[in-house]
Amino acid sequence: MFNQRIKVKQLLSGTATGTEVVVMGWVRTFRNNQFIALNDGSTNANIQIVASLGEFDEAILKRITTGASLKVNGTVVESLGKGQSVEVKASKIEILGDSDAEKFPLQPKKHSLEFLREKAHLRFRTNTFGSVFRIRHSLAFAVHQFYNDRGFVYLHTPIITSSDAEGAGEMFRVTTLPLEGAPKNEKGEIDYTQDFFGKGTNLTVSGQLEGELGAMAFSEIYTFGPTFRAENSNTTRHLAEFWMIEPEMAFHDIEDNMNLAEEFIKYLINYVLKNNADDIDFLDARLAEEEKQLPTEKRSGFGLKEKLEIVLSNNFERITYTEAIDILLNSPHYKKKKFQYEVKWGIDLQSEHERYLVEQHFKKPVIVTGYPAAIKAFYMRMNDGCEPGRETVAAMDILAPGIGEIVGGSQREERLDKLEARMKAMHIPLEDMSYYLDTRRFGTVPHAGFGLGFERMILFVTGMTNIRDVIPFARTPKNCEY
RNA sequence: UCCUCCUUAGCUCAGUUGGUUAGAGCACAUCACUGUUAAUGAUGGGGUCCUCCGUUCAAGUCGGAGAGGGGGAGCCA
After folding, report:
1. How many angstroms separate the CA atoms of A13 and A332, rounded?
2. Distance from residue A427 (CA) to nucleotide B42 (C1'), in Å?
3. Which nucleotides of B are covered by protein (CB under 7 A)?
4. CA A114 distance to own-chain centroid
5. DSSP run (H or E) holding A320
6. CA–CA separation, A34 vs A65, rounded Å?
7. Which neighbouring-strand residues pair with A35?
8. Does residue A470 approach strand B to less than 7 Å at its CB?
9. What is the pLDDT of residues A148-201, one digit of tens each?
10. Which terminus in chain A has less CB density within 10 A, N or C?
């Protein structure tokens, strides 16, 4: 058995001096031909290995370079140096894997995130990405814990789908037909009846519709999986492949939906503050350092930890779309004509409008409800008693400082006649969606749900600003490395 | 897809009104030192100045096109 080692995190959290240990990890730096900073990914902290002068072959010491992997036998001792309380005095050092220091791209110095993005396979070995991806793991775990504790069933919705009615953007086609010389039908179109599934199929853009089918039996379900959008979006907030959490709840109205979403977000933040305190502290310090480089007017004014604690201790502001428009119209910003896009009832809120509401006006997360029906999806429930010409739906978006839309959800239209009318008006073929309409035909109930962009949540919690830095291997237009 | 900025050593960057042999720190090599904390000191090697085309006696520097990247916008999570 090889793995009889102690992890660095455990070793640093109070191993008695005098204990004989085996540690394994990768060299971060080798100082003074004596002191090895060894890291195994369990924490950003390194264990200092002391290779006392004269006790090791010159040939071995030569091979202890940044990036090399080591197995070290030694004794835990109180450190004589100042930077750490304990260290391991090595009795035996074995090189598991050499690392040519001239070619290894990571140096004991600050690298740009852009550079590390190109070295995505090695960036896990840096402090920043170590923290980010340990937090990503924790958040994923917390998602399951949150819903499991509340009796939700984790439903695996399909990744390959023949449904394209969601309309949430361009889809990636899934096919085994040859690109050249694909079979054609009489109309000269590609004949998908000869394709693998006998019809056209795509990668899913959302598990929501299937999620609704599950909620109509289990009462409460959630999905948590990858989704795919072939939109040519080149921003710090979009990926072609991203992960989404979509709970769907029977017997819930829009208010229940908001309550759950707010509770969920706070739960995730709280979980990470408790379980990843070191990583949050590191990212907090890193962000503070970055802020110092910025001109005063561009600084956010408070730290990462502070921001998360403010979110935890305040209720999310809840306003209607109509109120949001009024706030914008009465804002000094509007009166000074600083908005690039027109503000009037009926528009979709632009990024600049959302940012103003969240970052200038309320300075905390905001839930906007009751959007105009004309700009929202077919499955959202029509609000009753609307002014003619101002029909709204029971939609809700949660807007977060620095991120924008982090959650999008709605109460679903459970009334068959209204749903069918809406689908017809939006030219959605009812026959293709018969399975979906069955939930309204047989024991329909009020229900609601939302989607939380997992990577956007990670951005918020880590204070990172580019979504490509919070997913291990980012897929974006013109970029699919690894 | 649109707007905008950027691309100089392995990395982070400097490079004057266009002018001879393009610099610094880190990294790397050699030596010295040895309880260091991104160790330190000395010496040394290291360049398709993103690519192509053009202007000019002369282009890292000016112009055009292209590629890659950053930021913003649209779309959205």
Report:
1. 53
2. 78
3. 1-2, 10-13, 25-29, 33-39, 68-77
4. 19
5. strand A317-320
6. 12
7. A31, A50
8. no
9. 999 999 999 999 998 765 555 688 999 999 988 888 888 888 899 999 999 989
10. N
Task: Please identify every stretch of chain A with a pLDDT value under 50, giving residue numbers as ranges.
Answer: none
Q: Choose among A155, A399, A145: nearest CA to A272.
A: A145
Q: CA gyration radius for chain A?
A: 27
- CA-wise closest residue to A402 among A301, A323, A269, A281: A301
CA distance A261 to A254: 10
Q: How many CB atoms lie within 10 A of CB A348?
A: 12
A53 touches strand B (CB under 7 A): yes
DSSP state, residue A350: P
Q: How many residues in total does chain A contain?
A: 482
Contact (CB, 8 A) for A476 and A240: yes
Residues 6+ apart with CB under 8 A from A450: A246, A247, A257, A260, A261, A396, A407, A408, A409, A410
Q: What amino acid is encoded at A439 in this protein?
A: T
SS3 A453: strand
Q: Name the pTM for this structure.
A: 0.93
Instruction: Name residue A452's amino acid.
Output: L
Taking CA atoms, A257 is separated from A37, A219, A250, A260, in Å, by 49, 13, 10, 5
Question: How long is the CA A233 to C1' B76 vector, in angstroms?
Answer: 9
Determine the pLDDT at residue A83. Answer: 83
Strand B–CB A237 distance below 7 A: yes
CA–CA separation, A349 and A359 (whole Å): 15
The CA-to-CA distance between both ends of chain A, in Å, stands at 32
CA distance A267 to A4: 36
Tell me what ipTM this predicted complex has.
0.85
Give Cβ neighbours of residue A91 (< 8 Å, ≥ 6 apart).
A73, A74, A75
Cβ–Cβ < 8 Å for A468, A117: yes
Which residues 185-214 of chain A have a CB under 7 Å from nucleic chain B? Answer: 206
Residue A156 exposed, middle or buried by CB count within 10 Å (0-12, 13-18, 19+):
exposed
Query: Which 239-268 positions of A have CB less than 7 A from strand B?
Result: 239-240, 242, 244
Query: Can you tell me the distance from the alpha carbon of A276 to that of A253, in angstroms, rounded to the nearest whole number?
Result: 34
Can you tell me the distance from the alpha carbon of A451 to that of A441, in angstroms, rounded to the nearest whole number?
25
